[in-house]
Design a protein that fits this description.
This protein is of the alpha/beta class and 541 residues long. Among the domains are: 24-166, Resolvase, N-terminal catalytic domain (Rossmann fold, 3-Layer(aba) Sandwich), CATH 3.40.50.1390; 187-315, Hect, E3 ligase catalytic domain fold. The chain is 45% helix and 14% strand. Helix 1 (45-63) links the parallel strand 1 (32-40) and strand 2 (68-77). The longest helix has 47 residues, at 444-490.
Length: 541
């Protein structure tokens, strides 16, 4: 019995909604709302003329068409095309298009639209879903065309690779200039310097006075916060032109080697050419240190002393205070705590200032170090200095012996060399083990055991190397501190007869005028020695 076959019937249901995918001939004739996008990546003069030409070209092109309604030429000047995040004109255009205010976007090329393949495709697909077309003139690509997305993918990938190539060339050029010793400085927010006729930093004396004030105040015991407050109250603008100074800005100035006429180049580098993301250089790429590269504002020795003082304060492992002359400088010989200033009889005629260990009443076992009246503390300071001054030559000789005994680097350098060689051997053994395991089938448990043993040895050796390097840095700093003391102490003549409290006066930001301990012909003796012999240790035996 034959099965009867029924002929299939197909009924076509015509679309009732017109979209951007429908042939324009089928849609009613309406004027398209047309916009254009123009971008230049730099603000150089030749690029500015290109920018103006693009705007003029698209304005005339759109307005001359009777079937087009001119919306706007959206623009971005001096903006890279590798990301859309900071392109205000571009982002405003896309928003207007998605809001239904634009039907067609004209632009010169895929690279003008975006050099990031992902950004290009995501944006075009969003527009396509809303029936908005993008036309790239150079490539003759319409995004609503069936082959449009494939072509755009290819062209935007080429544009992205071109951007990568440009970034690599720029980076190479910068590093070549660094290697040649050519200093690059961001002058807009760099206090004390401007670009000279020879292209090198030139001192701006009025700003240099502020820099010297910052360094001098810090070495007189002030903190970054105190200095920032003083400059703010004086109405001195920050390097960026703001009214409010921050402690971080002060510390940045204090640690900037350019003020001593040197330059450390490539402190940071670009890790992503698309996002323009910067990272602090922690050894990933080379750095270049140039000495005597330009004029100085701060004497190199004074700059080095500031770095030592910064390190000293950090090493205190407790809060540093500059509220009073002896704050954070007088140390309890029994518990190691700082002495603090206290007021006794604050409301009557017996008012006086005393100094005592801040930890005395914070511990169950109170330290036996007594308190001192401020005048007694000053007298002991003078006595401590004079004891050393009376045996000046012996003191300097002892310092020389201390440098030889404590600060010698010979043994450390040899240990560092040996550990470095050991690490190199371990790295090579690990590489060979991994390569051997990839070439042939091995017992994976045995492989993991051997690999873990090498990793453990490497970790221990690396930790040992870092400890040796830290000790080397500590000895170098100690040597500098002793040499700093010796240099200052050798210039002091005679004994101290009295202690005169520091008085700071003059205008709010000019260099401090300081009345100091006087002895012989020197009237600034205390300023020169106070940082060298502090902190004083008072001990009870």
């Amino acid at each position: 019995m034959q099965r009867q076959v029924t002929k299939r019937q197909v009924q076509v249901i015509q679309p009732t909604i017109r979209t951007g995918f429908i042939n324009a001939a089928l849609a009613p004739v309406v004027k398209q709302r047309v916009a254009a996008y123009a971008r230049v990546s730099t603000e150089h003069e030749e690029q500015q003329s290109s920018y103006e030409a693009q705007v003029d070209y698209y304005t005339r092109k759109i307005t001359e068409r009777s079937d087009w309604t001119f919306v706007e030429v959206y623009t971005d000047k001096g903006i890279s095309g590798t990301t859309t995040k900071k392109r205000e004109g571009f982002n405003r255009m896309i928003k207007d298009a998605l809001d239904g205010n634009i039907d067609l976007i004209l632009t010169k090329s895929v690279s003008r639209f975006a050099r990031n393949t992902v950004d290009t495709l995501i944006t075009i697909r969003k527009l396509k879903d809303r029936g908005v077309a993008v036309y790239f003139e150079e490539q003759n690509i319409n995004t609503l065309d069936g082959k449009g997305e494939l072509l755009i993918t290819i062209m935007s990938s080429i544009a992205q690779e071109e951007s990568r190539s440009i970034s690599d060339n720029v980076t190479w050029g910068q590093r070549k200039r660094f290697a040649d010793g050519k200093v690059s400085v961001g002058y807009k927010q760099f206090l004390g310097f401007e670009k000279g006729e020879d292209g090198l930093p030139k001192v701006v004396e009025e700003e240099a006075k502020i820099v010297r004030y910052i360094y001098r105040s810090f070495m007189m015991g002030k903190t970054g916060s105190h200095i920032a407050k003083a400059l703010t109250e004086a109405g001195i603008p920050t390097p960026g032109g703001k009214k409010q100074w921050q402690a971080s800005t002060i510390m940045s100035i204090l640690q900037n080697e350019k003020y001593k006429g040197a330059a450390l180049l490539q402190k940071s580098f670009t890790v992503d050419f698309l996002e323009k993301r910067m990272k602090v250089n922690e050894g990933e790429v080379p750095q270049y240190y140039i000495e005597h590269s330009h004029e100085t504002i701060i004497d190199p020795l004074e700059h080095d002393r500031v770095q030592l003082e910064i390190g000293r304060r950090k090493a205190l492992d407790r809060h540093y205070s500059s509220a009073h002359l002896f704050s954070s400088r007088v140390i309890c010989g029994e518990c190691g705590g700082f002495f603090g200033r206290k007021v006794w009889h604050s409301t009557d005629t017996y008012k006086c200032y005393i100094w005592q260990c801040n930890e005395k009443y914070r511990q169950r076992q109170r330290c036996r170090t007594p308190h001192f009246q401020e005048e007694e503390l000053k007298r002991r300071f003078v006595d401590a200095y004079n004891q050393r001054a009376e045996i000046k030559e012996e003191t300097l000789a002892a310092c020389h012996l201390g440098i030889k005994a404590i600060c010698d680097l010979t043994d450390l350098d040899e240990q560092i060399r040996m550990v470095t060689d050991e690490i190199s051997v371990l790295v090579e053994m690990s590489r060979q083990l991994i390569e051997e395991n990839s070439r042939a089938v091995h017992d994976q448990d045995e492989y993991q055991r051997r690999h873990s043993a090498l990793v453990e040895k490497y970790t221990d050796a690396d930790a040992h190397l870092k400890a040796l390097q830290a000790e080397r840095s500590r000895r170098i700093d100690m040597r500098k501190s002793i040499e700093w003391f010796m240099e200052s102490f050798s210039r002091q003549d005679g004994l101290l007869t009295e202690f005169d409290t520091i008085k700071v006066y003059g205008d709010k930001w000019n260099k401090p005028e300081v009345k100091q301990i006087t002895s012989g012909s020197s009237n600034d003796q205390f300023y020169k020695i106070k940082k060298r012999i502090m902190p004083i240790r008072f001990c009870i035996y």
